[in-house]
Each structure stands twice: as structure tokens, then as C-alpha cells.
Amino acid sequence: MNGAACSDAVDDYHCDCLLGWRGKTCDEDIDECLSNPCLHGICTNTPASFKCSCSAGYTGVLCGEKIDNCAEVLCNNGTCKNMVNNYQCICKRGWEDADGIHCIQNSDDCVNINCLNGGSCIDKINTFECDCSVGFSGKYCSINKDDCEPHSCHHGGTCVDGANTFTCICPKGWTGNNCSDDIDECDSHPCNPHRATCTNTDGSYTCTCKEDYHGDGITCNEIRLFTYGLKVGDQRSWINAHDYTSPIFSPPFGIPFGNSMFYRLYVSNIIHLLSLNCSILLFNIPLIYLYQQYP
């Protein structure tokens, strides 16, 4: 039966059964499901065979093949992981799903990022960047750039760094942002205003007594034109003062001094004076001269 081949024997016969059948006459169906041939499914026995009803996510005669659920899935900036009757898009760092589309939107990496000192956060793919305000640097704009580096305070000035700026503390005699401007000290008239000239120099000044006067430029004494040279008593002091008292000595005759004749002598307590180059007219008290020439 069932397509078996019969062989004659002595007083008997023999049936060669086809696959799936057994018995003397090949009329018994073999239950192939007893061996559990279906790997991921339910086995149903059929005449001389069986059928596997696969579980979800599997296919094939024996349900041993997993269905590739990623075959028609676009994960964009991610990787598809095949699962049983499902899939999963594993996005690369910095990407996320948006509007049902997998791994299409760049994640906002600026969330919870605080860029300091007025800096602003720029979102990038899987990272961020702080756009720092001028004068600051670093990942979070926390580093104040040394503005003294590309600049120099001239003439020994001291540079003090600030926020996007610097300040030069200039030495005496200099001014300007970089201490490069020379202060003209002569503008303040530091020298004797009538008997000396002021010359401005780099960072300083010099006072020079005019011709026929001798001194440091602050005090200039007139040189008397005597043939024996410049000695003590050969100079007279010109001092600008207005606190003198009434004359205490008004000789009826002129007093030769320098190249002129004088007839009044005033006393003050500002300057200790010398003598009039005369052993008789020697004063040992504070004096200031204010001579008036004869016309």
C-alpha cells in the first residue's frame, strides 16, 4: 500500500515501504512530529510527512531561520539590531529618533552646559563648543587670556591684566596706554621762571640757568663780573617771593652788586642768606633779597 513495492517470498511476501510509512503492508503512517523537527514552531503530522507552523519571527521548513526584520528598515545614523519579530535601531552618539524616523535628529549636546563669562554654546554632532567672549578661552570659557602677552608696557611700565584688556602702570615721566608718551615736565614750569630754561628729556627734564647765571636751574645766582673768578660772594640770589617786610636797611648810597647799583634791602624768614661780599655788611639772619636798581 501507499506506493510500496512488494517482493514475492516462499509462501510469503515483503513490502518495501516508502518514506513515512511502515507496517506489513505499509499502511501505518509514521508520526514525524515525535522527533520534534520544528525548531521554532508547532509540528503537524501529515500522511508520510509533517508540517511546521513557525513562530513569529521565524521561517523555513523547520522554522530554523530568523526573519531579518532589518532588511527593510532604515536606521540612518544608527545600527539595526534584528530581534524576534522585531528590530531595534541603536543610534550613534549624538543622534536620536524624531517624528518616527530613526536616528535622524542631532541630539542637543548643549543641554545642561554652562559656558561662562558670556560665552554661548554651539551644538555639534555628539559634542558641543563654547563660543567664548573676547578675552576668554577654554572648554567652558573659564580662562581669562593674558592680554599682557602680546603687548608691552614701554620704559619699564608694569602691565596689569584685566578682562579683555590690560593696564600699564607707567614709571615717572611717562604716560599713555603703553607708557610710550613722554610727559613734558616743562609744562609745569619746574625751573626758575626768569633765570633758567627747561629742557624736556625722555622721562625727565633738565633746568639750565641762563647766561650770566649759575646754579641748579631751580636757584640761579647772578655771576658778578670780577676779574678774579667765581668765588663765594660773587653771586646774588634771585628769589620770587612776596612775603618780605618793610625795608630795614635803606642806605643813602648805592650798593654795587653784580653789574648794577641797588639801594634797598629787604628781610624775610624764608631763605638764609650770605653776605654782600663785604666784611661789614655780613648778615647771619634769614634774608631774602629784593633789590631795586637806580634808574
UniProtKB/TrEMBL annotation:
Membrane spanning residue stretches: 270-291
Keywords on record: Developmental protein, Differentiation, Disulfide bond, EGF-like domain, Glycoprotein, Membrane, Repeat, Signal, Transmembrane, Transmembrane helix
PROSITE patterns referenced in this protein's UniProt entry, alphabetically: ASX_HYDROXYL, EGF_1, EGF_2, EGF_3, EGF_CA
Gene Ontology BP terms: cell differentiation
Disulfide pairings: 17-26, 33-43, 54-63, 70-80, 132-141, 170-179
Annotated SUPFAM superfamilies: EGF/Laminin, Growth factor receptor domain
InterPro entries: EGF, EGF-like_Ca-bd_dom, EGF-like_CS, EGF-type_Asp/Asn_hydroxyl_site, EGF_Ca-bd_CS, Growth_fac_rcpt_cys_sf, NELL2-like_EGF
SMART domains: EGF, EGF_CA
GO terms, molecular function: calcium ion binding
Keyword Signal: yes
Cytoplasm keyword on record: no
Domain named EGF-like: residues: 1-27, 29-64, 66-104, 106-142, 144-180, 182-221
UniProt protein name: EGF-like domain-containing protein
UniProt organism field: Eptatretus burgeri (Inshore hagfish)
Organism taxonomic ancestry: Eukaryota, Metazoa, Chordata, Craniata, Vertebrata
